[in-house]
Amino acid sequence: MFTGIIAATGKISAIDKLDGDWRLTVSSATLDFSDVAAGDSIAVSGVCLTAISKINQGSTVNGFTADVSRETLACTTLQSFRVGDLVNLEKALTPQSRLGGHIVSGHVDGIAELISRHVDGRSERLQFRVSQQLSRYIAHKGSVCLDGISLTVNAVTGCDFGVNIIPHTAEHTTLHLFQPGRKVNVEVDVISRYLERLLQAREPAGNITLDKLAKAGFGN
Hints:
The longest helix has 11 residues, at 190-200. By secondary structure, this protein is α+β, with helices and mostly antiparallel strands. It has five helices and twelve strands. A hairpin with a 2-residue loop joins β7 (110-120) and β8 (123-129).
């Protein structure tokens, strides 16, 4: 599990293509991987990967390798990564971690496209578009994870939603690189997925409406 609070950025150091799968090498000059063991989870731009080995630079552990399956390549933006690309990094939660964002699994639900961005005071407002299938999980003032970054949804219109980015978030993640047309990994709030599943047990598929949710006591 993760929080969506990015610990550091890193880069793709190597991509080895093996029978359709990838072996990815990720490194960072600022994130310490010395406490990472084989089998540990690390979120790479929102995608939960399993570390299979660590990379040393002298006495410093500055990276790790991970296998990326065809399924992950097909469902995320990892397929478009190239050596040298900047990525967001977060190590898995420990019992002592602060839960500063929201509960994130690193299991990507789909891909969104950045439609626009504009300055708003010292912050910036970014508008993204998701598929109609994903849009029902995006709620005003709810949480969404974009490329591993926990963000609050400020507005929702159809399949479009907006977020506000403060300078600190832009500077310490890959968000400063985002331009219209950019594709990002999306993970919706896990609570919305389970809520829908629970309601489907009470209502036939497709019959869940905002009115029925309100009558059931949600959103009050």
